[in-house]
């Protein structure tokens, strides 16, 4: 999807350091030469178009609660079905198909480790498929706010 | 004080003088859905949580300083923009080298996420994970070859798991279950 210059600038400038002030969108507008109403409209439209998942905080998972990357090996013809079941499990927030015997990869979060284990046990029992549980041991780079390469995009 | 969604060793996160702990918990729940797109979003959050606008702003600032919030800003769905080749490259690195190599790979501009996870033998021998949010497959293959070359990873067993479909992508829900 092609975005206009103002949308690009919004994204380039505010993937991080969004103001904590009474009128943050007005502060952003001033910096980008827009009006507050325009910033709010643009952000709403970008969310609607699925360019943004949200405006807001990204929590550090090790402080926010428990979180884990898991994978299951689903038979090819059942992938959509299994993926839908995974999506319905509590705490799942990412779920991708990947090219491997373990072909569905998802992230599950929970308020604490015990609840996370229970949820995974329940899901594993429901799916009856081999499951890898891969907690993070050490993060070297875990923030997804990288710069968009607008020129290279289709 | 023991809150259900708080690790016992992290009650300091709620040490925000005189603000009701339940108000803060409700605030975290609200924040997991993002900042409202109203002219005064922190006031909107205050109205939803029974806190004042000042308290909401103070809590958000404090959580940023403490690292509970690692960034505050626009969360992009890269696939919509045209990043269609999402690759997870995984390596089986000797344990005594994984930390050093992880830091080196994380410094590369093409690597957007990098972390160590446990092996699960025999099915899963890999312990170092790198994500590349690429625009197309060929370009990502090229970027990977360059990483292998630059960091001398030729002898390290690896696999590349491309993703061609996202079934779900949203923010983590630690407090709320919806």
Give an overview of the whole structure.
The complex is a heterodimer of chains A (154) and B (178). Chain A has six helices and six strands. Chain A is α+β, with helices and mostly antiparallel strands and 154 residues long. Chain A has two domains: 5-48; 61-134, 2-Layer Sandwich (Alpha-Beta Plaits), CATH 3.30.70. A four-stranded antiparallel sheet of chain A has the order 3-4-2-5. In chain A, helix 2 (24-32) packs across helix 3. Chain A is elongated. The relative contact order of chain A is 0.14. Chain B folds into two domains: 9-66, Arc Repressor Mutant, subunit A (Orthogonal Bundle), CATH 1.10.10; 78-163, 2-Layer Sandwich (Alpha-Beta Plaits), CATH 3.30.70.3460. With 178 residues, chain B is of the alpha+beta class. Classes of the chains: A alpha+beta (154), B alpha+beta (178). At the A-B interface, helix 1, helix 2, helix 3, strand 1 and helix 4 of A face helix 2, helix 3, strand 1, helix 5 and strand 3 of B.
Write the layout of secondary structure elements.
The complex is a heterodimer of chains A (154) and B (178).
Chain A: H1 5-14, H2 24-32, H3 36-48, E1 52-59, H4 61-64, E2 66-72, H5 79-88, E3 92-97, E4 104-110, H6 113-127, E5 131-134, E6 138-141
Antiparallel strand pairs in A: 2-4, 2-5, 3-4
Helix pairs in contact in A: 2-3
Chain B: H1 21-31, H2 41-49, H3 53-66, E1 69-76, H4 78-81, E2 85-91, H5 98-106, E3 113-116, E4 128-134, H6 137-150, E5 158-163, E6 165-169
Antiparallel strand pairs in B: 2-4, 2-5, 3-4
């Amino acid at each position: 999807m092609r975005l206009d210059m103002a949308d690009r600038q919004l994204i380039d400038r505010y993937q991080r350091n969004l103001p904590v002030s009474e009128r943050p969108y007005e502060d952003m507008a001033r910096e980008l030469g827009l009006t507050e109403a325009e910033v709010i409209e643009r952000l709403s439209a970008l969310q609607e178009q699925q360019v943004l998942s949200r405006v807001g905080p990204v929590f550090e998972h090790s402080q926010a609660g428990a979180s884990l990357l898991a994978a299951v090996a689903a038979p090819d013809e059942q992938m959509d079905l299994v993926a839908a079941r995974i999506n319905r499990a509590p705490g799942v927030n990412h779920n991708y198909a990947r090219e491997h015997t373990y072909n569905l990869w998802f992230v599950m979060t929970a308020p604490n480790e015990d609840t996370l284990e229970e949820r995974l046990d329940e899901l594993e029992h429901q799916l009856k498929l081999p499951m890898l549980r891969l907690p993070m041991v050490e993060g070297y780079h875990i923030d997804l706010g990288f710069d968009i390469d607008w020129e290279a995009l289709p | 004080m023991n809150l259900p969604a708080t690790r016992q060793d992290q009650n300091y996160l709620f040490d925000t003088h005189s603000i009701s702990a339940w108000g803060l918990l409700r605030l975290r729940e609200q924040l997991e859905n993002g900042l409202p797109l109203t002219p005064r979003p922190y006031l909107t959050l205050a109205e939803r949580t029974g806190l004042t606008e000042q308290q909401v702003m103070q809590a958000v600032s404090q959580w940023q300083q403490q690292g509970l919030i690692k960034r505050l800003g626009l969360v992009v769905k890269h696939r919509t923009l045209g990043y269609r080749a999402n690759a997870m490259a995984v390596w089986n690195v000797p344990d005594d080298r994984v930390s050093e190599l992880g830091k080196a790979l994380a410094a590369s501009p093409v690597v957007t996420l990098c972390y160590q996870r446990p092996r699960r033998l025999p099915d899963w021998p890999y312990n170092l994970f790198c994500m590349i949010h690429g625009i197309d497959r060929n370009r990502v293959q090229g970027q990977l070859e360059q990483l292998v070359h630059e960091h001398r990873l030729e002898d390290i067993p690896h696999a590349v798991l491309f993703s061609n479909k996202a079934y779900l992508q949203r923010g983590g829900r630690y407090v709320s279950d919806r």
